[in-house]
Amino acid sequence: MARWPRQILFGDIDAMFASAAVLTDPSLAGQPVAVGGPPPRGIVAAASYEVRRFGVRSAMPTIQAMRLCPQLILVPPDRPLYQRLHRQIQDVTHRFFPETEWTSIDEFYTETTRLQIRHPDPRELGEALKADIRRTTGLTCTVALASGKTVAKIAADFHKPDGLAVIAPGSEAAFLAPLPIRSLPGMGPKSTEAIERLGIHTVGDLLEPRFESALVRQLGTRLAALQALALGHDSDPVVADREAKSVSHETTFDEDTNDPALLEPIIHGFLESLTHDLRLEGLAAGSFTLKLKDSHFHITTRQRKFSSPANYDPDLWPDIRAALHELLQPRSRYRLVGLGLSDLVPASEPLFDRRQRDAVAILDRLIERHGTGVVRLGGLPHKGDGHKKRGRRAKD
Ligand SMILES: [Mg+2]
Predict the structure, then answer these.
(1) N or C, which end of the chain has less CB nearby within 10 Å?
(2) Rounded distance from Cα 99 to ligand 1 centre (Å)
(3) Are both 187 and 262 inside the same structural domain?
(4) Distance 213 CA to ligand 1 centre (A)
(5) Active centre residues (catalytic)
(6) Which long-range contacts (CB under 8 A, 24 or more apart) does 41-46 make?
(7) Are residues 69 and 46 in the same domain?
(8) CATH number, domain with residue 305
(9) From ligand 1's centre to the CA of 44, what distance in Å?
(10) 391 within some domain
(11) What are the per-10-residue average pLDDT scores of the chain (396 residues)?
């Protein structure tokens, strides 16, 4: 079997939160399960494949999900369970791979180029990994191997659930050509609509010479980057967590932006969610990394230490907000933003005084029930926290 010049493996647990609910209560298997907060303010954090058939999606208000699927079984989130499963999956990936980049609690990339000596057949490697994750956790994982991260991710999305996709080098463009344009990262509903109005519908169309001038008018300098993606050219490296422990979150926008009024609440929302996870784990963060990717796919980052490790977002936000304003370039527009917390250490006792600690424990229970966007403590100091709360977020 010919060796690939570069090989990236992407793994994504299938509907992890909903599948975890079935592990806890096997009678839920095959039932229309969604994980989320109750109406009127709750949102769906994860939808099983059974309820997706009714049009239920993550980040949808629970009340709307119940209208679409009246027999919906709503299960509250169980973050300690997800963390436990995450560590079990990490035990498996550590056995297989020297380094793994986790982009969320249930999604990871790893470079397997050198592993080809031991695993010359990518399909055999994917099968072995899937079987081990299933045996260890009871969860199914969709795995894709390709020459770059973007194609691997797209291939996995098209082979869910419990899929295995192998896109051999040289076949990337052919794999991508028939897919709808919105399959490409960063192609949100608005950008997609604008391009579809030109009569361009598939990824392959982006490479058609007859559409070239219309595309240049529509996309300007973004076109070259999109065409490179359409060809499957993608040398984005796997960035393994250097720290043994870190947590991070990132998102790609529908429309590129450099508006702090939009960026701040999104990053603050990541911080709220990440610090909530740290508190549940009894950990505190010693430093952070803020990452921006501009419309030309150029990545800039700021990495800073906090004055002391902490896990309560109002203590951490002023440093992160300052770093954001340093990073933002007036003439750049940004397609992606990410926040990571690292140098994780056991939270020293007391990180808060006792009264505060009890209040934060109540806050965490409310977050479990309603999500990070809707609760806020009144009695605690919110240094430099002067903006409106962001609406909601959820993960698939
Ligand atoms: Mg998943």
Answers:
(1) N
(2) 20
(3) no
(4) 38
(5) 107
(6) 41/370, 41/374, 42/74, 42/369, 42/370, 42/371, 43/371, 43/392, 43/394, 44/394, 45/17, 45/77, 45/371, 45/394, 45/395, 46/15, 46/16, 46/17, 46/18, 46/394, 46/395, 46/396
(7) yes
(8) 3.30.1490.100
(9) 14
(10) no
(11) 94 95 95 89 87 90 93 90 91 92 88 95 98 97 97 96 97 97 85 91 96 92 90 88 68 86 91 85 87 90 90 92 94 92 72 55 67 48 35 36
